[in-house]
Each structure stands twice: as structure tokens, then as C-alpha cells.
Design a protein that fits this description.
The complex is a heterodimer of chains A (307) and B (274). With 307 residues, chain A is mostly helical. Chain A contains twelve helices and no strands. Classes of the chains: A mainly alpha (307), B alpha/beta (274).
Chain lengths: 307, 274
């Protein structure tokens, strides 16, 4: 690809240094504003409880005591970012990864469900799209069902999937993956139908003049043409796969996984634990989308895309 | 769509001297309000090795007629034979190379792999594919651009890649549908000169659709003037220009006389009216 580089010299501001110069300040400003608002909201939301407690103790108390109290509650309505960071520090860095108290362990459990569901869902999504594009009957008959499937609230259907699969002896990873798959096949199908139909009429006519077989038209034209659409869909799909896996952990009363941490956190009023699990889920989601994005860049580069 | 991927050898042995034979051909497109007569009563015979241009205003059916020859459209009535067989059979035998109005390159394939695309489909071995790609890219003046991708090339270069692609499987018949229509005049002149040189060397049968009088006269051994509503042939004009031509020939009285005849024929077909 040296020729590409020669044709399109990288602008001086590209790369990490440009990124830092162009983005660091605005990003830092936004993060700062969010943290400020967060600490303020923690005072506002936790103040009534703290005030009541301070009143009970009888001693006179100042605004300073109140603020300090709202930022260090055992079970706050809204924990501060520092408390969440502390919880993360405790459960991520200071706990053995194999321990059931480690958030890394729980994140890994959820990630395995997410990835299996994502793989199954992507496969299902691609197969449905191939069918819909090639068979008129499927286009007419399947598409309404594909769309209808997504109007059913996943929270309503997840317990049933868990129960049914449980009675078949399938517990743990599989039900989660199935729920994940149920959510994530949809964007893949929609994106791939569009992608497989993206070749223009001339490109298809060309194949006809070569007397190409349907398999050749698929592998040499429709499939490569759909790859950019596929990756756009996969980025959406991997994020909602994670949602699916977490939702799938709730009705099992699951012993492991980020969903289980959310559930046990809410049983015992451990809001800090809930927030820590949420942060972990967000990080996991970002990591997954980033990974798909990197694969996308690599693949499209191989396919000669404009850098 | 008939799709058996059988590889028939395109026979160069003359099934007579006629490449294309069309008699009483009509094509009517059914549309919701009124059927559109795209072609009406077309008679035309093209001999092997001829360079024939279809010229006429938009809607005269010149592209449609070419698509009928290529079996991309079915005629409503009439007789058509390509290399002595039906267009469908000719297409299955991969008898022609088609160059479209736009290059229709595959963006994810390098220049070489775009040129070898038809060869891959026809099951030709890799070494032979690469040899042919190199040969025809050289012929269209694109040696050294093998590893580039389409977006890295200018419009004229892209169209030359598509011509190399059409030549790569060595069809005896070349169908070109306004291949230079989207290019600037300078590029167009240069490609016209290259094309006439290519035709002179290979003596392929070429059908060339254009709406430029100068281009038609410069390239063709015969010019088919068409007229719209309904699409039909007005006149067929033989060119008296020598086979070997350079761009200078466009200044000669002979050239201008032929161009004048083409313009007259277009006028009798009401091509200059609304």
C-alpha cells in the first residue's frame, strides 16, 4: 500500500499528536463539567438522608458536615464518582480475577455470553439477509416477522427463554447467548439486505454478460459490496449483544455476570456496587465496539478502501 | 437467468461473414400508462471486422438495440442472430465484451483484479489471467497501475481499465455503449485515437454507441443514424475514410462531408426538434 501513502501524504496534524491537540481540551472540558454536575447531584439527592441522620445525633452541624456526609454514605441514593472509583479499585485491582468478588470475573462471564450471542446473531442475521435478497418469497414472508420480533420487549421474553431452555437442561451461557442473539441479528439482517442489494445495475449486468453463476455473482459481487454495510451493522449489533447478555442474567437470579451484580446490588441497596457494574458494562461495550471498529479498518484497508 | 457455467470456446471460424444479423426487430416496453415503442422495424447486418456506430438523440433506442444484441433485453418481435446464433446462446458462449457508459469497476479489486474478473469467472488459470491482464493493461496504456485501486485513477483511466477488462477474454465482438460520454473532450480525443489504433491492429467487430457526430465519423467504417419515437434506423452511412486515421483527419473535406451527411440524416429524423 506504499503507493497509497505516496498519493495521499498524511496531513501534518494526523496521528496521536493531532488527536491530542484537536480533541484533548474539549473532551477534558466535557468530562470536567459532567464530574462537577455529578458531585452536585450527589449532594442534592443524598442531603435529606444525611440531614435526618445529623439531626438525630443531636449535635449542631454545618453545611460542611452535610456535604462531607453526602459524599461518603454507605448506601447513597447517588454515589460520587470517587466512591465508584473506589469500588472499582477494590473489585477490579485488589481482588483476584478468579474470585467471585472480582468485577473482572463477572465482566468475563458476561463477555462470553455476549460474544457467543454476537457470533450466533451475526450468522443468523447474514443468513436471513442472504435468503431475503435471493428469494422473493422470503422477502415478502420473512421481513414482517423480522421487524415484529423487535417490537416484543426483551425483558418480557427473556424469562420465558430462560425457563424453556432450563427445562431442556440448558442453563448458564446458552440462554444468555440466545437472548443476545435475539437482539443482535436484527441490525445485521437490515444492514446486510441493504448491502447485498447495493451493487448498481451495471455491475450486475456485467456479471450477466460473463454468464456468471448465482454463486459467482454472490461471492464476487454482492458479498464484497456488502462488507462496509456489514461492519456498520456489527458495531450496533455487538453493543446490543451486551445488553442482551445482561438482560439474560437478570431472570436467572444469576450467580455470575454483570447482570447478577446489578440484581444483587439492587436487592441489598448497594448502589455503589450497581454503579460500578454499570461502569464496567460501559467499558466492556466500548471495548467491544472498538474491537469491531479495528477489524473493520483492517478489512476495508485490505479491500483497497480510501484511507 | 440461464447460468450453466460451461466454458465454450468462442469460435473464430466464420459462421458466414456476418457478425450480427437483425431483421424486422421491434421492442416494446410495457409501462403503466402507454407502452413505449423503443425499437420499431430495425434491419441491420454487421460484417466481421466492421466498426459500426449507432448515433442519434436520447431516446432513439441506440442503447436498447445494443442491449438486445447483448441479450440484456429481449426483443418483442423480429429476428436477431449474433455469430449465427441467438443472442442468448452468444452470451452463454461469451461471444462479446461489453463496455458500459460508466466504468462499473469493482471498488474492492485492484486494477489487475478488475481486469482478471471475467477470466476468474470463466475458470482460466491464474498464470494465464495475470499474463492477459498485463498484456491488455499495456495495450490501453496502463502498465504500472496494476496495483492501484479504482478510486486512485482518473475517470479516463477507469474507463480504459474497463476496456482492458472487456478485451481480456478476447471476444471477437466488442459492444461499447457511450464509453467516453462522461469524459472531457481532450481525454476523449486521445482515447478515440487509441481505440481506432486498437481496432486496426485486432480487427475485432465493434459496435459503438455515441451521440457525438465527430466521434462517430472519426471511428466508424459505417454509421447507423437513428431517430426517436419510435426508435428506428433512419439511414446507414458508409465511411470513405481510410482505415488508418489520426485526429488530423477531422480537418479534411472528406471528413466534414461525411459529418454533414450524418447531420442531414439526423435532421430528416426530426432529431433537432422538440
Amino acid at each position: 500500500m506504499s503507493a497509497v501513502g505516496a498519493l495521499a501524504p498524511a496531513p501534518a496534524d494526523a496521528g496521536w499528536r493531532g488527536l491530542v491537540r484537536n480533541h484533548a481540551l474539549p473532551v477534558a472540558a466535557v468530562v470536567g463539567a459532567i464530574l462537577l454536575l455529578w458531585f452536585a447531584a450527589a449532594i442534592w439527592l443524598n442531603a435529606p438522608q444525611v440531614a435526618a441522620k445529623l439531626d438525630q445525633s443531636g449535635a449542631p452541624w454545618s453545611a460542611r458536615d452535610l456535604v462531607a456526609g453526602t459524599w461518603s454514605m454507605e448506601r447513597p441514593v447517588l454515589p460520587t464518582p470517587l466512591q465508584i472509583a473506589g469500588e472499582l479499585d477494590k473489585t477490579v485491582l485488589r481482588t483476584a480475577v478468579t474470585s467471585k468478588r472480582s468485577l473482572v470475573y463477572h465482566a468475563a462471564v458476561t463477555a462470553s455470553g455476549t460474544l457467543l450471542g454476537f457470533a450466533l446473531g451475526s450468522l443468523l442475521g447474514i443468513l436471513l439477509a442472504v435468503g431475503i435478497v435471493h428469494l422473493r418469497v422470503l422477502d415478502k414472508s420473512l421481513m414482517p416477522w423480522v421487524i415484529a420480533s423487535q417490537t416484543v420487549p426483551i425483558l418480557a421474553i427473556a424469562p420465558m427463554i430462560v425457563v424453556v431452555l432450563g427445562s431442556l437442561g440448558l442453563t448458564g451461557l446458552v440462554p444468555k447467548a440466545i437472548i443476545s442473539m435475539y437482539l443482535c441479528f436484527f441490525p445485521v439482517t437490515i444492514g446486510m439486505v441493504k448491502g447485498l442489494r447495493s451493487p448498481d445495475p451495471l455491475q450486475l449486468d456485467l456479471m450477466r454478460t460473463y454468464n456468471a453463476s448465482p454463486a459467482q455473482i454472490f461471492w464476487k459481487l454482492r458479498w464484497p459490496a456488502s462488507v462496509p454495510f456489514l461492519f456498520a451493522s456489527l458495531k450496533v449489533a455487538v453493543a446490543i449483544s451486551l445488553v442482551g447478555a445482561i438482560v439474560g442474567e437478570l431472570p436467572t437470579g444469576a450467580q455470575a455476570g454483570l447482570g447478577a451484580r446489578l440484581l444483587s446490588g439492587s436487592y441489598f441497596g448497594q448502589t455503589t456496587q450497581i454503579w460500578a457494574a454499570l461502569v464496567m458494562a460501559a467499558l466492556l461495550g466500548a471495548l467491544l465496539v472498538l474491537a469491531v471498529g479495528m477489524v473493520e479498518r483492517w478489512v476495508l484497508r485490505q479491500m483497497g478502501a480510501r484511507p | 437467468m440461464p447460468t450453466k457455467p460451461t466454458l465454450k470456446v468462442v469460435s473464430d471460424a466464420p459462421a458466414g461473414d456476418t457478425a450480427i444479423d437483425i431483421r424486422g426487430l421491434s421492442l416494446i416496453f410495457p409501462t403503466p400508462d402507454a407502452p413505449v415503442v423503443a425499437l420499431s422495424g430495425v434491419d441491420l447486418s454487421v460484417k466481421r471486422g466492421e466498426f459500426v456506430s449507432f448515433i442519434g438523440p436520447s431516446g432513439c433506442g441506440k442503447t436498447t438495440l445494443m442491449r438486445v444484441i447483448a441479450d440484456l433485453e429481449r426483443p418483442s418481435e423480429g429476428h436477431i442472430a449474433v455469430n449465427g446464433v441467438s443472442p442468448g446462446e452468444a452470451r452463454l458462449a461469451r461471444a462479446y465484451g461489453y463496455v458500459f457508459q460508466s466504468p462499473a469497476l469493482y471498488a474492492w479489486r485492484s486494477v489487475t483484479r478488475n481486469v482478471t474478473l471475467p477470466l476468474e469467472i470463466m475458470g482460466i488459470a491464474r498464470d494465464e489471467r495475470l499474463t492477459r491482464a498485463a498484456k491488455y493493461l499495456e495495450m490501453v496504456g496502463l502498465a504500472g497501475f496494476e496495483r492501484k485501486f479504482p478510486w486512485q485513477l482518473s475517470g479516463g483511466m477507469q474507463q480504459r481499465v474497463s476496456i482492458a477488462r472487456a478485451l481480456s477474454f478476447e471476444p471477437a465482438l466488442l459492444l461499447m455503449d457511450e464509453p467516453f460520454g462522461a469524459l472531457d473532450e481532450i481525454t476523449r480525443d486521445r482515447l478515440n485515437e487509441q481505440l481506432i489504433g486498437l481496432w486496426e491492429r485486432t480487427r475485432k467487430t465493434v459496435i459503438f454507441v455515441t451521440h457525438s457526430i465527430a466521434e462517430a465519423v472519426f471511428l466508424s467504417s459505417r454509421i447507423v443514424v437513428m431517430s426517436p419515437r419510435p426508435g428506428r434506423i433512419m439511414q446507414v452511412i458508409e465511411s470513405s475514410l481510410p482505415a488508418r486515421r489520426t485526429l488530423d483527419i477531422r480537418e479534411t473535406p472528406e471528413f466534414l462531408a461525411i459529418a454533414h451527411r450524418v447531420r442531414d440524416a439526423l435532421r430528416t429524423g426530426h432529431s433537432y426538434e422538440d
